[in-house]
Amino acid sequence: MRIFIVDNELSDVRIDKYLIDILNISRSKIQKLIENQDILVNNKVIKNSYIVRVDDEIKVNDIVENTDILPEDINLDIVYEDEYLLVVNKPSGMVVHPALGHYTGTLVNALMYHTNLSNHDIRPGIVHRIDKDTSGLLLVAKNDDVHLFLSEELSKRKVNRKYIALVYGVINNDTGTIDAPIGRSIFDRKKMMVTDINSKDAITHFKVLERYKNATLIECTLETGRTHQIRVHMEYIGYPIVNDPVYGKRKLINDFGQMLHAKTIGFEHPITKKYMEFSVDAPKEFYNILDMFK
What is the CATH number of the domain that holds 207? Predict the structure, then answer.
């Protein structure tokens, strides 16, 4: 039996779509399992049309093929590590965990080669995620108790996460807060948008670090952690992130991806209870693009 707990980032979609996104199996296979009552949600029989919600417990009472994650010897930039957790600096371009179309070369594949991880099925060790083309810091848990503690700290908004981003346009205010709910786009299921339909609260604080002729370098602090939150919020207020292939409205500079870097993460250690904070600089490719706007 495999058990999945639905998180904020993958909720509000049909049960078959949810499982397709995290497992390498066909829609027909999933539908067959549902028909045979081999998939339960909160210990109840459901239909293919069921919409998964945050904290739903999904049980798959069958051996699902092709879901083994293979450890891979991939270099990791580990900023901190002890016997309970680690903080890793993910490069831009690396997928965090295996998913449809990305079963190898992910951060999870690399982490499994390096150390033991908490048992979280398709996302072992991964407490929270950042997008493939976003660089920066991630928390990784080595056992289930640590994973649970850190996940609860995130949900209680006790983890300090700061990003730097380059956006198009000159922001006149030195600081600002964007408080706008985010949900899946009604026009494109692969995108998110500010909406009141099946959405969750989302709050982003920002401050201006430097202004250029037609762009602004900002620091963003997340109060919530929704999928694509900073990218969606900045596009919503008219300052899309530079080089964003999904939410940007201008020609891409190159294939580096959005100019967004998870610079700082701070948290209470689950065992020592001491506050710990780490920061890393953005990659050189980030600054190569930044120099074009100076």
Answer: 3.30.2350.10
Q: What is the pLDDT of residue 24?
A: 62
> Is there a single domain that holds both residue 212 and residue 86?
no
pLDDT (0 to 100) of residue 66: 42
Q: Which residues have a catalytic role annotated?
A: 131
pLDDT tens readout for residues 177-225: 999 999 888 888 778 999 998 788 999 999 999 999 999 999 999 999 8
Give the total number of structural domains in the chain: 3
Could you please report the per-residue DSSP string of the chain? -EEEE--GGG-SSBHHHHHHHHSS--HHHHHHHHHTT-EEETTEE--TTPBP-TT-EEEE-S--TT-PPPP------EEEE-SSEEEEEEPTT--SS-BTTB-SSSHHHHHHHHS-----TTSTTBSS---TT-EEEEEEESSHHHHHHHHHHHHTT-SEEEEEEEEES---SSEEEEE--EEE-SS-TTSEEE-SSS-B--EEEEEEEEE-SSEEEEEEEESS--TTHHHHHHHHTT-PBTT-TTT--S--SSTT--SEEEEEEEEE-TTT--EEEEE-PPPHHHHHHHHTT-
Structural domain range at position 47: 2-60
**Which of the residues in the chain have pLDDT under 50?**
63-66
pLDDT digits (tens, 9 = 90+) for 141-190: 999 999 999 999 998 999 999 999 999 999 999 999 999 999 888 888 77
For residue 45, what is the domain's CATH number? Answer: 3.10.290.10
